[in-house]
Amino acid sequence: MTEKYKIGGMTCAACQSHVRNRTGKLPGISRVQVNLLTGIMELDRDPDLAAPGDVVRAVTEAGYSAELISGQNKPYAEERKARIGNDGEDSAAAVRLILSTVFFLPLLWLSMGGMLHLPRPSILTDETGAMLNSLLQLYLFLPILFWNFGYFRRGVRALLHGGANMDTLVALGAGAGTISSLFLMVQMARLTGCGETAQAQRLLMDLTFEGPAMILILVSFGKLLESKAKRRTGEAIEKLMDLTPPRASVLRDNKEVEIDVRDLVPGDRAVLRTGSAVPADGILEEGILTLDQSALTGESLPVERMPGSALSAGTTVLNGFGRMKVEKTGADTTLAKVAALVEAAAASRAPSARIADKASAVFVPVVLCCALAAFLGWMIWGPSFHEALSAAMAVLLISCPCALGLATPVAVMAGTGRGAELGILFRNAETLETLHRVRAILLDKTGTVTANSPAVTAVFPANGVTRTELLSAAASLEAASQHPLAEAVLACARKEGIRPDPVTQMEVVPGEGIRARRGDSVLSGGNLRMMKNLRSDLQDAPERAEREALGETVVFFAEGDRCLGCMSFADPVTGGAAEAVTELRKLGVTPVLLTGDSSGAAEAAGKRLGIEDVRGGLLPADKERIVREFQSEGATAMAGDGINDAPALARADVGIAVARGTDIALASADVVLMNSDLRTLPAAFALSRAVIRTIHLNLFWAFFYNIIGIPVAAGLLYPWFGLRLPPEFGAAAMSLSSVCVVLNALRLRRFSSFVNLNTKHKESSPMNERIMSVDGMACAHCAGRVEQALSQIPGVRSASVNLAEKSVTIQADDSVSDAVLTDAVRNAGYAPGTITRK
After folding, report:
1. pTM, whole model, 2 decimals?
2. What is the mean pLDDT of residues 531-545?
3. Are the C-beta atoms of residues 800 and 780 closer than 8 Å to each other?
4. Pick among 3.40.50.300, 3.90.1300.10, 3.40.50.800, 3.30.70.100: CATH of 2-71
5. Catalytic residue among 167, 292, 444, 641
6. Known catalytic membership, residue 444
7. What is the CATH number of domain 767-837?
């Protein structure tokens, strides 16, 4: 079973490695992942061989604390708990830092006032005041030592448990300076007691209480900055955590009551109104809502939801009032699954982090050896013990295992969080690393680059037949049909304000089409064979041949034996698909189109998209075979809807599933695109490359810093350039190194894809505003009926009634005709008047 534990006391990569190694040695533990950022350890445990108590005991014996996280009813329960704890820890650390600084300033004045030419009373500067000066320095230093004693406690404890870490280095560095100063004070007291005050005053110059104090303050300041910067890398994840509202309004005994969202159960009726957040997944039963679902899809454009539409937790009601039936709650909601996927990705380890893991395992022992070597070298060839101690302290303090440990996880967390904001969900860090190497992507056509929803592409009335006559007959015939093309015909008729007539005696003619009776005539719709059997005059054969050459489906319509004309249908390319293909090419990724459709339909789609390599007539097994062919040339990705291309998705190095909005059932893929806009596909490639570049830069900086910093601190350049670093500079450099790594990863939070995903693609029709006068509206119920009737029209964004002025303001596409709008109002039982456009 998989379990998660909250680990306390980790400060660097050495701690992380120590916890992982100690826990991984337990029998029954097969996998251990420790996240330094969140303090969460995830492992697989065999209940027959190991108990949770064994895990907690192993971590405790390693010098850290562990707590099993169980009974989570919400995604990110452990993250929420860790975040709250960090908030309190940061506040306490800030208070300790301020108090330490208050005591440090007079300490600095006492110890270095002469060098800084600051005025000091003679009682502290002459020979008789040397001991008083040293005592005052000690008294000012002790509170600083007390408030920062955690470094010593944790460092020594880690050393005793065989896992020396960053705290060990700080404790040894600051402790050496403290012990040295105390030893000098003992000598000063002896000399003062013997009356040798002049010699005691000379020793005062070597007193270095300000050094350990500055070290502790600088390290604390750096850790505080690092903590706050790390918090920012997880901002996107925290936003996901906060999307579900704490309370929900539900109907109980026909009364609206407010309950805790955790008490929601499937079957509840929740009430939604403007400004409220959807508390669970379910179905809208009443009302029309305008929703913001950017948290799930990355698109900020509002969407309309009608009765019968699916709703997802975490979306926000921008406008409207409605009632929903709850179907999924808690961890079963779409939002919870998105959050779990992002959490898993943020906690995973990239393959490139293995070199950092190996280095961190031996880092502290190597640094201790370097410090000892520096001390011995300066003792042998240097001028004094004080110089030797200073060199050893500088080596201990400039070394930074934190930068090594943070290099990968901060970049992964920032990148996956930014991806979630764009509607791109990565399964793990390994996917990020593999995707950036992909140079070929295989695209499934139906449902991926096309909408899988046929639309009318052309209408060809026969000679002597009007377009309206043809559409009226086609709509009347298809209104009672369940054929996939029926909705396309009806949508085309609605746009032109044509209402279907009632028909009777509907009949399906196998292999040909359908027919029905309208009044005294018989309407027929079907293929060429049906028309020939009717002995109908086929005037549109050239148009049919042209459209079928483009891979489109052509349907003929007749009244009796008179051909009325034909209509062509095609599955339209999704908005932004052609733009996405162009951007993939710019990124050096070659797109290939795969489909089970005929070669003609495949070639036509390829031309619209600008894809040269098109392969049609494929079975699922054929797609999997083609993936293997491309893999022989390098890393290959496959993008599909997960329905009939599951084998190819599983075979590809990176499987990319297009989830179409809020469907997370495809989360078995390596990457899930929550946004129906295919332009998120090149954005995923670009983001993966940005994350990997950041990881490599962080690792380079972490290694380069230590490789250069440690020799300089040891004084290797001193014989030639006279260059060496005081311990205080080493402490400052150590703090800044880890802060730099985190800040570099934070740049990913500002990553922007090649196009604004919050804007419509170029094929979208422009919107306009119209005002229609309506008679017969007398109350809010009337207004609601009119708004609902208009909002159900495809292409209508919103409809808002003004009862006082007896009018309705409509936001709609240019493709929506005025006739369609007036017809909808008339069918609702009201009298439409004039329409004016703004």
Report:
1. 0.69
2. 65
3. no
4. 3.30.70.100
5. 444
6. yes
7. 3.30.70.100
